[in-house]
Amino acid sequence: MRAALLRNIGDTQLEMRDDIELTAVGPGEVRVKIAATGVCHSDLSVMNGTIPQPAPCVLGHEGAGIIAEVGEGVTTVAVGDHVIIAWSPPCGECAYCGPRHQPNLCFNIQMVMGGTPHFTLDGAPVAGMAGAGTFAEEMIIPHQGVVKIDDDIPLEIGSLVGCGVMTGVGAVLNTAKVTAGSSVVVFGCGGVGISCIMGAKVAGASVIVAVDLNDGKLEDAKRFGATHACKPEELESLKASLTGGEGFDYAFEAIGLASTMRASYDNARRGGTACIVGVGKLDEFVNFSAFELFFSEKVLVGSYYGSADVRTDFHKLLGLWRDGSLDLDGMITRRIKLDDINEAFEAMQRGEVIRQVISF
Ligand code: PAD
Ligand code: ZN
After folding, report:
1. What's the pTM value of the predicted model, to 2 decimals?
2. Ligand nearest to C-alpha 212
3. Which domains does the chain have, with CATH numbers?
4. Ligand 1, atom 12: nearest CA belongs to which residue?
């Protein structure tokens, strides 16, 4: 089977191989023929060691496809069903899935997925990223890791919902709970940041400021609902004119740098919310004075997978796409093949793309 392999953490290129194989489909598992997969910054963050993950591994976690085989006891999906891959699926039974109502934080399935490699190379086990591994023609995953969708939904649209869109829109609607009429600033206009902007528009925010280093991204951001867009160095004066210098009701960080996490906190108003969506390095730190945390009464909140319950939220987002509220088609800057993956990472690092989708 053809798949893109990350041989070692720190490698800058993925290896295209035709000899990756799958283990047998075990009880409770499903085999999915991948139809489409988005390229997310988190894939790159595994390569450069920002996101911890054992190598060798098959990257890719933003995918959708068709069920090719179901293991013993699987009743939730059947062969031929169209599905979105959920990289952090709920087990449905633990405290996070039940009384805490935080199913995105359930580790029971994700750790099983991450801990049980379903790919092999020369007979040796190869893991999939976050237990997924969508940069492959086929993959195996516990049945909780797939969400069935309607057959008429293009699978490239489904793939985007599987990570970037769920993460960004979910951060706004589920984690920060942006309210109508509020002011929002979003740092970073990749697939995740653009999804935050679309989410803020859905929430009815009246001011949505996009911040990015790349001029093209600032134009893109306006197309997706940003009312203003600027370079980081222009934000201070825009903040002064839009908020009287007080800061924004909500600030979202969708880059993954300590400096922009700090900037999101600084640009939230007193009593406002700074929501950290980007994934930074384990050994990079954001500093706060011991006084300001109390004094500013800001809410500083991380957002993991858009605080999603994938079983209902994927459908909710697809509904918003159907009614025209989310322009997911417009997010696709380039449609590429699996063999173009290394170039795709280069384009992402140059900040040229919102999302690139690999179709099989
Ligand atoms: P991306 O690389 O497509 O977009 C990042 C954007 O940030 C680009 O447009 C850059 O030009 C811009 N940028 C970079 N540096 C700066 C800077 N200093 N100031 C302003 N703009 C800058 O990434 P993405 O949208 O795929 O992912 C964004 C982050 O979200 C990344 O850290 C990823 O790992 C994280 C993520 N988090 C979750 C989660 O569950 N929280 C899920 C998926 C992705
Ligand atoms: Zn992702």
Report:
1. 0.98
2. 1
3. 3-152+327-359 (3.90.180.10), 164-305 (3.40.50.720)
4. 188
